[in-house]
Structure formats: structure tokens, C-alpha cells
Specification:
The structure is a homodimer. The first copy, chain A, has 2 domains: about 130 residues, Four Helix Bundle (Hemerythrin (Met), subunit A) (Up-down Bundle), CATH 1.20.120; about 220 residues, Rossmann fold, CATH 3.40.50.10470. Chain A is an alpha/beta fold.
Chain lengths: ~375, ~375
């Protein structure tokens, strides 16, 4: 999407040095715009592990480009195949639970195994890396097109010029993918179509990805929005100020239970209580066909308490960290929660919109029928 | 309650200089413990207006003591009655919507009108100020006793030593009153009785009164607790980790709709969805008998956006403020929301526990029957 007036993805080939890839170092957002050059597999591994980049789609694409750098390095190595394998292991180990990461790396390994010539390996690796990134964009665009229909329906019931007001939680934006994002794809698509919008951006404590990333994305692209505390959504819905909710998903079970950033469940409850449609946008790569009951089965990671007790911000001169609680106060930090399918109006996938149910999902993804 | 090992109220007479009152300057909590001497009506007005002290009960009590200082000042004044009236107006104007403030000031004015002698005026004003503070404490203690029965019931169903886990939102603690608090009164009372407790403290963005004040109170008094993001309560309830919710109230309608800090409604929804009892503790002075439908009738104040966009904390050397959103990002800050009576299990008042309904409240407060 647009940054400082120009289109950008989250990862791309260096414009003049084709053995370097570039990523947005997202740790500095929204306080500084830092582009990082990655010219070795080790640098790529560090960028993923230390969260210079994050988000399922973005991690997968960067790992794909990482294997392209691995192919370049292997061409100078005495044991090129061993170097490729070591690189693959190194990349996969950076975020062990990231499904897209392992998938991208193994896709590269399979493709490169067929290419005996080092130059051909490099060329193939670049082709595959580009494909992975382009497919991620195409997937998000398809989610955007399907979600657009929902937004258009709401806009059609409003007076001309009156904005469709959409609430979102956390960052399921283009920064988490290669472009467009998942929850934001319908928003950017509707914006391209000239539909008036107003986005309520949950700040999303404790890591504040809404306030730091989603608000930055929308602001750069020119989409009207306002940051709200996570506490505000219910009040806004009670007063008819939210037309729909669109969130992303870390993992969705075959029955439609949605694991997403902590607090999503509370917004789904408020949406149901006020008759507001609650949609989840997700690429099918995040569907977990092995699970049914999300609340019981999906493990919820407990993260470091300092994400709650300390806050990073701009003090006027530099980024600094302050403690916001009494000294030594205990805090508990659960990374996400599970929204039961009964609270979800629909799942917006790249193949279309499905009810949040096993039968609904299987109609779109019949290859996962087990009988 | 206990601070640094010693009992404290939020306002008291200076131990050796009886023409000075002392308050806790709450703006510095939890980073510093500052006791402020107030020796003039102007200083009291500033302390209330600039929120050195806050909370309905605390404001009322400090205003009561402020009128005692007014009586001292009036005894040196050429026109003592005019000085008293000016002081009363000055104090009432500091927080025009604070019901307890106007009530305390007018109670003093009425009592002082009967006392022609200046020395007698001073002595009466001190008596009344002490009465107002003591009555606030007695009211909170009564709330604590009634709420204790609920906690004891839950404890009785648990294995010995297993804590009763109570979630609370914002600061309806002793810092908002003179002692004990409203939502915290049952907690402190149960703690005195030796019932094992674990308190989930919502941080309560954007002003973080939970993380800054409630966690500090509980920590000083020795009550086991953990700070959680406002987003976490639903997840904890889904997993059976919350036995009950107790919150305070800014205003409760005669039908039992509860205005309280923004985000309270979301916790009430989660409590209902998971069968967790949701109680509101309130002194009857915050009941608004003129209103019925809280969502429609209670005006919700919109506060400064900087409470969202900027965060105050301890940088290791001093209290500093950092910006936590993109530069110039818009933000919207609603101060509270309304929880409909249908989501409230019961109202814990100083006269007992009532269903959240007009009939329930009128049985406890029959003097407000209109027919």
C-alpha cells in the first residue's frame, strides 16, 4: 500500500543490487521508517527471529526470499546442498510455530532439488520467492474483493457520502502480509472504489499493534480512522456507531472457532449484543483442519509480563521505555483468545465468504472432507 | 488501608497542626508517595480541580474539610459570612458534576448558618467534616460486609486454601473514597477475614487507574493480585479463572443500569457468556433516581485524546510522557459506558444487595417510591 506517497510491499528485491532483499524494519514503526537490507541467510533469520518483520504472510514471503539468498550462498560453497539444508533449518527454527514459514522453505527446497546447476538454482529460487510473495498478494486481494461486497451492501443502505464505520482489532494489515493484509484487504479495496469509510482502530494492548501499526498503515494510505482504547468498542456499538467488525485470525478451527489477538472475543460479544455483523478475514493457510473446539484445543501462549508493565514510546527526542505500573507489580499476559464460531457472522477467505461452521468451510474447501 | 505498613485514609487532619489538612496527592501514584498539606480553601480547590485527589467519596470528604478551612479563614475576615459563601461557591465550581462535592459543601453551610460565634463555627465545621469522612468510611464498610457474604459463599465451595478469583475494572478502591472503597470493600473485608483471594486488575486504559492505583492499593495492603490488559478478562472467564466480577459505578439509574469506566460493559458481556456473577458495588449517593434507561439517558463525557495518544510512566529516573501512536493520529476517548441492568447480577449497596431492577432498588430505598 502507500507509504510516504509511494506504493510499498513489506519485502522486495533491492532495486539495483539483486543479491540483496529489503524489508521494512517494523520494530521502529510508527516512530521511524527504516528499510533494512538483508544480504545473508543469517540476516534474514535474525530479522524473522527478532521480529523486524512479523505476520504470517510476511514471514512466509521473507523466508522464501531467504532461500533465494541461501541459493546464492550455496553457489560459493564447497557443499552446496548441505548449505541449502542448513539454511532451511536455520530459517524454520526462527519461529517454530509459524506455519507459513516452514511451508515456504520446504516449497523452495523441493523446487531446488530438481535443479542441479547452481545458476539455475539461484534463478529458480528467485522465481519461487517472487511467486510466494505474489500469491500472498493475490490471496489478500481475493479476500478484499469478497469483503468488498459486504461493505458495498452497507454503503448502499446509507445516505450518499455517509461513511461505513468498521471496527478492527490488532494488525491484520498489509504489514503482516506482503500487501493489502487480511482484515484490512476489504477496507483498502473499498477505499480504492471510493466508498466513504471510517475505521475504528482498537489500540490492542499490550503490544499496541493497532495504535502503532494499523493506524500508521491507514494514515499513510489516507484512510479515515481514529484510534480507540480496547475498552471503547462496546460503547460505540451501543450507540450505533459501528456498522461492522472485521478482524484477522491466527488460527481458525474446521468448525469456525477463531483464535486471534487477545480481546477479539470481547468485541464479538459486543457485536452480537448489538446486532453488528462480526467478520473474520483469513487466508485458508491459517485454517487448522485438525481442530474442532478452539476454546478447548488451541493452546494460548503466555507472553512476557513486561509487555504490560512497560510501554515504548517517543519522548520527543528518541524512543524510550517507561514503567506504567507499581514497581514489581505482577502481571499476566495471554497472547490471544478464542472467539467461538457462534459469535462469528462469516469467514472471509480467498475463495469466498463462508458461515463459521464445518459445513460452511467444507463447501469452500471440499478437499478437506474426511468421509 | 495499609500504606508502607501503616493505616491511612485519603484525607485527614495534620497530626500536630490542626489548621492544616493532609491528602495523598494521587497524581504521583504509583511512582511516588506524596502527602500534600492543604492550609487554605484555594489550595483545597486546586487539589480537587487539578485532580490531586479524585473519586466521589474522596472529593466529598476533602470538600467537607475545605469548608472547615473556610470557617477558619472566615474568622479573620471582615465579612465572615460572605467569605463562607464565596468559599462554598469556589469549591463547588471545581468539579461541577461531582454530586458528593456539592452535597458536602451545602451540608456544611446549613450547619454553620446556625452558629453565630466564629470559634463555634470552626468547631462545628470540623465536627461536620469528620462526620462526612467517617460516614463515607461506614458506608464503604457496610458495602464490604454485604459483599463479604458473596465471597464467603464462593470460598465455601472451594478446596481449603484455593483463592476466590475476583476481577475488577478501574479504581473503585479506597483511594476514590476515604477508606475501603466500593468495589474493593468486599475484597478488603474478605482479606481481613483470612479468605484466600486473587484479584485480576484490569489495567483500564486509557488512564490506567487499575494498573496505577488499584494494583498499588492492593500491593500495599498485601492482597494477592495480577494486572491484566483490559482485553484479557473474556479469555480468563472462558477458562474458569474468574469466580466473580466486582466493579464500581459513577452513576446507576433507578432501573439498575450502571455507568462506569469505559470497558465495564464488555466485562459484563463476558461474565454473562460464561456464567460468572457480575456485581456492582456502590454507595446509594451515586444512585440517580431521575433516570431509567442508562444507555439512552446518561451523557457520556468525551475526554482529551492525549489520554490515548500519550502515556505517562517511570523512565528509571523520573516520570516522563511518551507518545505511543503515529504522529498526529486521531483518537477518540469516551470516559465511560453503560452496562444494562440485564447483565448485572446484583448491586451491593450500604443497605444490602439488591437485584439490578427498579423494584429491587425500591425495596432497599423505599423513600424513592414515587406513587
Amino acid at each position: 500500500m502507500i507509504v510516504h506517497g509511494k506504493p510499498s510491499r513489506t519485502v522486495w528485491l533491492h532495486p539495483s543490487q539483486p543479491s540483496i532483499i529489503q524489508v521494512i524494519d517494523q520494530r521502529h514503526l510508527p516512530f521511524a521508517w527504516v528499510i533494512e537490507d538483508l544480504s545473508t541467510v543469517d540476516q534474514v533469520a535474525t530479522a524473522i527471529k527478532d521480529m523486524h518483520i512479523r505476520g504470517a504472510g510476511c514471514i512466509g514471503a521473507v523466508a522464501g526470499y531467504g532461500m533465494y539468498l541461501a541459493a546464492i550462498e550455496a553457489s560459493h560453497d564447497a557443499t552446496p546442498d548441505a548449505h541449502l539444508d542448513r539454511s532451511a533449518q536455520k530459517l524454520v527454527a526462527t519461529r517454530p510455530t509459524a506455519v507459513n514459514l516452514a511451508w515456504a522453505v520446504h516449497r523452495q527446497l523441493r523446487a531446488l532439488a530438481d535443479q542441479p546447476d547452481p545458476a539455475q538454482k539461484i534463478s529458480t529460487a528467485l522465481t519461487i520467492a517472487t511467486e510466494i510473495a505474489d500469491e500472498d498478494v493475490a490471496c489478500c486481494r481475493a479476500i478484499g474483493q469478497h469483503g468488498l461486497a459486504l461493505i458495498r451492501d452497507i454503503a448502499a443502505r446509507k445516505a450518499p457520502g455517509e461513511p461505513v464505520r468498521i471496527l478492527t482489532h490488532c494488525n491484520a494489515g498489509w504489514l503482516a502480509f506482503v500487501d493489502y493484509g487480511s482484515a484490512t484487504a476489504p477496507i483498502y479495496t473499498a477505499f480504492e472504489q471510493g466508498i466513504p469509510l471510517h475505521i475504528w482502530v482498537d489500540e490492542t494492548r499490550p503490544r499496541s499493534q493497532g495504535a502503532r501499526l494499523t493506524a500508521w498503515e491507514l494514515g499513510q494510505h489516507g484512510v479515515p480512522h481514529a484510534i480507540i482504547p480496547d475498552n471503547s468498542g462496546g460503547h460505540l456499538m451501543q450507540h450505533g456507531l459501528v456498522d461492522m467488525v472485521i478482524v484477522g485470525s491466527d488460527r481458525t478451527t474446521r468448525c469456525g472457532d477463531v483464535a486471534n489477538k487477545i480481546g477479539t472475543y470481547l468485541k464479538a460479544l459486543a457485536a452480537r449484543d448489538n446486532g453488528v455483523p462480526f467478520y473474520v478475514a483469513l487466508p485458508s493457510s491459517t485454517l487448522d483442519w485438525t481442530m474442532r473446539d478452539g476454546v478447548q484445543e488451541i493452546p494460548v501462549e503466555e507472553r512476557d509480563a513486561t509487555e504490560i508493565t512497560h510501554v515504548e514510546g517517543w519522548d520527543g527526542h528518541r524512543v524510550t521505555t517507561v514503567r506504567v505500573v507499581p514497581e514489581n507489580s505482577p502481571a499476566i499476559n495471554h497472547g490471544f483468545d478464542v472467539t467461538p464460531a457462534r459469535l462469528v457472522t462469516g469467514l472471509i477467505t480467498e475463495r469466498g465468504i463462508s458461515p463459521a461452521s464445518e459445513e460452511g468451510l467444507l463447501q469452500l474447501y471440499p478437499e478437506h472432507r474426511t468421509e
